[in-house]
Design brief:
The complex is a heterodimer of chains A (346) and B (168). Chain A has 346 residues and is mostly helical. Helix content of chain A is 66%, strand content 0%. Chain A has one domain. The chains are: A mainly alpha (346), B mainly alpha (168).
Chain lengths: 346, 168
């Protein structure tokens, strides 16, 4: 990726490039999870819900809260229930985090800054993000705890139901862009035009706003965030599939949850808001500014997600299923039909 | 080409070990989890054969949906929980072994007969064939009627399952 940046004129071999890419992706997940946790969970949630605690530690605006939380998790005892299935119990958090890591391999951060520009980019991202359900089911079953098992079953039913609207929402974008490669989708937004006016290109949120709304609702459910947080429902199931996890293993789930939120926000920003591109920036400057532009856009999307999370009460289980099957999926099909008809007509 | 061979043997051995795990495991949840490894290995083999789209369909459908429905069903009904020993066993294992060997023989004979001695060369034309656009074109132009027939078959199975499951 850096090899193609001409001002730096670096010649890197395949192995070195691969090592750098791997390290960058390995660093992005915890960093993204921490940023979202700090900005949204600790600061914006505190403002919205008048929570004074996280604003206090360390003096200035509670900057020490996250450090303190991290240290607390690291020093906690690693408790495993006596009747737990030890290997499955230990592997479950790793499966969840693995699925988060894999998503980031296809998200482009600049014209040349992408780990691998897959021909089937969007499809790959949604396929690997569905793997986390296996980790959740493993955790719930291996904990040998009824609350955990119920939470895992709720999570599986919910994630399967909302994968469909998520995929259907993306199909509209794919039809309009004519490619499934995320880099191709960014380029087609950059080079698009709205009634002959091409200054800002054609960010697909303008033509695919139905898809954008569907994607956000479905992503909210995939992330098991309020109002779709039945799998963790702390007032009914204590904490669902995570109830037996402590310390470092719990931290893995936490990083998985917020890392996936980071990933879905980046995906939404790439699909609907034009990704790394801004008007008037090309070539090497796009490579340098790209990551920052993408970060700004994904924070905007993440703000919408967390705003809903901190505002709405939890749905009931049957309402959740009815919303997906009777409302979101029909809208998704209608959106594909209209997009396809317009694509053929113009 | 030796890289492909090495990758193939690593994936094939992992798949074989996991398949033995699926049939040997007495705990039905463990068996389902071994199945995940086998299916992931199949997806990896598709990637080796430059069928990228098929590989990710395999991940999304088989690992992301079918195995999850397996696990969901098992856990709703009879998952052995809390360290109790799994009850999965079959006293017809010798009969099963004979059938398995027979199937293996038939498959090997068929594959050797069809592809024996043929070498697949990884040319640009082959890579082009694995691309999503080509797959979509062949599916919806050349094989449109078989595709529609399969869809109707699946729809029929779906409606049948609902009719059988509903008692009211």
């Amino acid at each position: 990726m850096i090899a193609s940046l001409s001002p730096f004129a670096l010649e890197l071999g395949w192995g070195t490039t691969m090592a750098i890419k791997t390290l960058v992706v390995l660093a992005i997940i915890p960093a993204g999870a921490l940023i979202l946790g700090y900005v949204f969970l600790l600061k914006i949630m505190s403002h919205m819900q008048s929570r004074l605690g996280p604003m206090d530690p360390g003096g200035f605006h509670g900057w020490y809260q996250l450090v303190g939380d991290g240290l607390k998790f690291l020093q906690k005892e690693d408790v495993m229930p006596a009747k737990a299935d030890r290997r499955v119990f230990a592997a479950a958090p790793a499966v969840v985090v693995l699925s988060t890591f894999l998503v980031f391999a296809v998200i482009p951060m600049g014209p040349d800054l992408v780990v691998k520009n897959l021909d089937v980019g969007v499809f790959y991202a949604l396929a690997v993000s569905s793997l986390s359900v296996i980790g959740v089911l493993m955790a719930g079953w291996a904990s040998a705890n009824k609350f955990a098992l119920l939470g895992a079953l709720r999570a599986a039913a919910q994630l399967i139901a909302y994968e469909l609207p998520l995929l259907l929402a993306v199909v509209g974008v794919v039809i309009q862009a004519g490619t499934m490669s995320l880099q191709g989708i960014v380029f087609s937004q950059q080079n698009g035009e709205i009634f002959g006016w091409d200054f800002i290109g054609n960010p697909f949120i303008l033509t695919q706003f139905v898809g954008f709304a569907l994607f956000l609702v479905a992503a909210q459910a995939e992330l098991t965030q309020t109002p779709f947080d039945m799998p963790v429902a702390e007032s009914e199931l204590v904490s669902g599939y995570m109830v037996e996890y402590t310390g470092f293993r719990f931290l893995f789930f936490f990083i998985g949850e917020f890392g996936t939120a980071f990933g879905f926000a980046a995906l939404a920003a790439t699909l609907f808001l034009g990704g790394w591109s801004i008007p008037g920036v090309d070539g090497d400057w796009a490579n340098i500014l790209g990551p920052f532009v993408l970060f700004a856009k994904l924070m905007l999307v993440a703000f919408l997600m967390f705003w809903v999370r901190f505002t709405y009460p939890r749905l009931r289980e049957d309402q959740l299923q009815a919303l997906a099957w009777k409302f979101l999926i029909p809208i998704g099909f209608a959106n594909i039909l209209v997009t396809g008809a317009l694509k053929v007509a113009f | 080409m030796w890289e492909q061979d090495v990758a193939f043997w690593i994936i094939a051995l992992a798949m074989a070990a996991a398949s033995i795990g699926v049939v040997r495991s007495r705990n039905i949840v463990h068996a389902a989890l071994f199945l995940v490894v086998v299916l992931a290995g199949a997806a990896a083999l598709y990637i080796l054969l430059v069928a990228e789209f098929v590989a990710w369909v395999q991940v999304l459908i088989y690992i992301g949906a079918v195995v999850i429905l397996f696990l969901f069903g098992i856990m709703l009904t009879r998952a052995p929980m809390g360290g109790e020993p799994g009850q999965l066993d079959n006293d017809q294992r010798w009969g099963a072994a004979v059938v398995a060997l027979f199937v293996l023989g038939v498959l090997v004979a068929l594959l050797v007969d069809a592809f024996g001695g043929k070498n697949i060369h990884f040319t640009d034309a082959l890579v082009e064939q694995g691309k999503t656009g080509t797959v979509g074109d062949t599916l919806f132009r050349q094989y449109l009627v078989p595709f529609e027939v399969v869809s109707m078959l699946l729809l029929g199975a779906l409606v049948g399952a609902v009719v059988l499951a509903r008692r009211d």
